[in-house]
């Protein structure tokens, strides 16, 4: 008998996935009889949900680490099968989460009904306690029950803070999960219960009840005080009945964790570079977290992590004479052939009048190189798509001489696939990429039809025509251990400039400190008072202010001792001081014109203000004297502008 052929890692995981699917289906079929099940049986189902969820997570982690080279025998459609298996595990996870939440809600409702029945029984027993003999028997038989009931009542009384105060909504809020209450700006809500986590139970004018964030509310002031006091006394009576009638909203299942996870992870725009890994908030963190623990939590390997250098662009077609070119630039992003998978990063090119058809990057300049001109870029992605690659688009910003109209023109695009047909990453080397016209969804469109690649003729003629084709030179660089460790501290999906990478790492470390160590409760929905978290995303839209921060930090870092540079906590504290001395005053300065893309006069005026401010800071050893000077004028701001609403990030994205 022939020996059995060894099964590879992926088939084993597929077999294990089918077993998990059968167990989940069996559990779901049992849960359909939940109306007739006892409480102990429901607890058993809930525990099995948790165990299956852990087993599915283990399968996911193992699947993510798999590589095609690990298979002992060839596997057809390897990446497709891997994606299908990942989708199956996600589906099973979703089913288990819904089942666990439904069981939790039913338990809460049953507990409420039981407490009502027990209170009725207690009142009946109170009427019969006039007889001494009956009283002694009730003490012996029901003493333990009364003690537990009193403890539950005391706990509930300490937890509930019933009020009858009315509040006005200062903004629109849309329910994001079951139990939330949707309301509009200006709507008056009656607060039934104030919870310490920032989510209050409220009732609107229609009688609907649910959870609302307290940051959207402000006290409602009535003109007639007597009417408000009378209504308040009546409402106090109603509060007890309402909380007993509808106990479903007393405990907010999930506590908005779905919104938290979405706000701190998934797809990242350049304005949301604050993203966090999903798994960070799924653990119970200790009250004190060391710098090493936080660094380990922030460090997240990704499927693709590399550094690329934009060398030059050659034979780029010249624009027509009726327009004036304001900017030549390259935009790049992650692309899988159907959709964009990351933020869009822009690098501005330089050119010489003698060679107007050649663009270059990273010019030699005095001082620090502006981040907008830096051709060295980092790239991170967790996508498992076999068609993953980098989409480059060359473009110009222009102004029309006759009408003053401003606009953008595309000079061609090219797609560099990061994996070959067998799923192996492409080698790190310099690539000469020929540009295409039209859009990435069109094939065979030429950038310059006068030098078509399909031109007929001799071999030498075709070779000459290829040399005249518009092209982009890009170099992929292999990562050493130090570079890989640095990139692992960044978000899992991001493209950016290498010159700003240390500032982004500082920002994520500060964000980690605030979210994991600086809050009273991990379920708190309050705004976070932190100017760095509130204003840092603006720097990504204003690269000249980012350059000012880079310059100030480089100057401060040069004065530190070697031992101080090794102390992560000390570096963060110094970075916060530099940030408040440099960025915060500039963002609120009335002398700094608003940022406008590709406007030479505005850019020159902004940089003059920034350079003068940095020189003044250097002379005065800080920004305090400039802030207190009568010559310095700053825009007024509300304190809410200096707060960070991490739940609001997902609300902005949904809107």
Structural account:
- Mean pLDDT is 75; it is low at 1-5, 114-119, 122-164 and 224-294.
- With 655 residues, the protein is of the alpha+beta class.
- The chain contains 17 helices and 17 strands.
- The strands form three sheets. Strands 6, 7, 8, 9, 10, 11, 12, 13, 14 and 15 form a ten-stranded antiparallel β-sheet that branches. Strands 4-3-2-1-5 form a five-stranded antiparallel β-sheet, covered by helices on one side. Strands 16-17 form a two-stranded antiparallel ribbon.
- The longest helix has 51 residues, at 78-128.
Overview in brief:
The protein has 655 residues and is an alpha+beta fold.
Instruction: Return the structural class.
Output: alpha+beta
Number of strands: 17
Measured as a percent range, the helix fraction is 40-55%
pLDDT averaged over residues: 75
SS summary, helix count: 17
What is the multimeric organization of the chains shown? single chain
Question: What is the overall shape?
Answer: globular
Approximate strand percentage: 15-25%
Q: State the low-pLDDT regions, or none.
A: 1-5, 114-119, 122-164, 224-294
Radius of gyration: 32 Å
Largest sheet: 10 strands, antiparallel
| Cα-to-Cα separation, first versus last residue | 65 Å
């Amino acid at each position: 008998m022939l020996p059995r052929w060894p099964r590879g890692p992926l088939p084993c995981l597929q077999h294990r996935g089918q077993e998990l699917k059968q167990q989940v289906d069996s559990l779901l079929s049992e849960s359909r009889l939940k109306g007739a099940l006892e409480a102990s049986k429901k607890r058993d189902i809930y525990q099995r949900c948790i165990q299956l969820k852990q087993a599915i997570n283990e399968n996911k982690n193992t699947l993510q680490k798999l590589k095609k080279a690990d298979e002992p025998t060839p596997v057809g459609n390897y990446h497709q099968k891997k994606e299908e298996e990942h989708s199956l595990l996600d589906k099973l996870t979703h089913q288990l989460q819904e089942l666990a939440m439904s069981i939790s809600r039913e338990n809460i409702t049953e507990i409420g009904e039981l407490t009502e029945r027990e209170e009725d029984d207690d009142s009946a027993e109170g009427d019969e306690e006039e007889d001494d003999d009956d009283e002694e028997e009730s003490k012996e038989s029901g003493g333990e029950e009364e003690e537990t009931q009193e403890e539950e009542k005391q706990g509930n009384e300490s937890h509930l803070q019933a009020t009858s105060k009315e509040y006005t909504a200062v903004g629109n809020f849309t329910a994001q999960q079951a139990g939330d209450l949707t309301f509009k700006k200006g709507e008056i809500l009656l607060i039934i219960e104030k919870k310490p986590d920032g989510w209050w139970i409220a009732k609107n004018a229609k009688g609907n009840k649910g959870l609302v964030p307290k940051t959207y509310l402000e006290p409602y002031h009535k003109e007639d005080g007597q009417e408000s006091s009378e209504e308040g006394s009546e409402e106090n009576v109603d509060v007890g009945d309402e909380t007993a009638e509808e106990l479903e909203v007393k405990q907010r299942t999930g506590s908005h964790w779905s919104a938290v996870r979405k706000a701190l992870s998934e797809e990242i725009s350049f304005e949301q570079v604050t993203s966090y890994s999903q798994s960070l908030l799924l653990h119970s963190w200790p009250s004190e977290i060391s710098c090493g623990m936080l660094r380990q939590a922030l460090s997240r390997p990704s499927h693709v992590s590399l550094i690329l250098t934009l060398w030059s662009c050659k034979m780029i077609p010249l624009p027509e004479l009726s327009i004036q070119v304001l900017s030549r630039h390259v935009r790049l992003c992650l692309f899988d052939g159907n959709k964009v998978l990351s933020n869009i990063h822009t690098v501005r090119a330089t050119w010489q009048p003698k060679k107007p058809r050649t663009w270059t990057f990273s010019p030699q300049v005095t001082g620090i190189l502006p981040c907008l001109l830096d051709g060295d870029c980092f790239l991170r992605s967790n996508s498992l798509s076999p068609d993953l690659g980098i989409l480059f688009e060359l473009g110009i910003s222009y102004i029309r001489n006759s009408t003053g109209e401003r606009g953008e023109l595309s000079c061609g695009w090219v797609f560099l696939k990061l994996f070959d047909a067998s799923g192996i990453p492409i080698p790190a080397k310099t690539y000469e990429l020929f540009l295409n016209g039209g859009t990435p969804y069109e094939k065979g469109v030429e950038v310059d039809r006068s030098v078509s690649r399909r031109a007929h003729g001799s071999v030498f003629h075709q070779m000459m025509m290829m040399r005249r084709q518009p092209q982009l030179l890009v170099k992929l660089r292999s990562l050493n251990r130090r570079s890989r460790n640095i990139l692992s501290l960044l978000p899992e999906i991001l493209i950016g400039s290498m010159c700003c990478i240390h500032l982004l790492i500082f920002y994520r470390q500060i964000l980690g400190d605030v979210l994991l160590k600086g809050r009273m409760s991990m379920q708190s929905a309050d705004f976070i008072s932190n100017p760095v978290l509130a204003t840092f995303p603006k720097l990504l839209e204003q690269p000249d202010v980012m350059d000012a921060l880079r310059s100030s930090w480089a100057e401060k870092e040069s004065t530190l001792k070697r031992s101080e540079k090794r102390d992560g906590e000390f570096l963060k504290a110094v970075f916060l001081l530099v940030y408040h001395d440099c960025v915060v005053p500039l963002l609120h300065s009335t002398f700094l014109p608003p940022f406008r893309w590709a406007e030479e006069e505005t850019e020159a005026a902004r940089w003059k203000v920034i350079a003068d401010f940095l020189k003044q800071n250097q002379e005065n050893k800080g920004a305090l004297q400039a802030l207190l000077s009568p010559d310095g004028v700053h825009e007024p701001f509300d304190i809410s502008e200096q707060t960070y609403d991490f739940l609001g990030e997902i609300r902005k994205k949904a809107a």
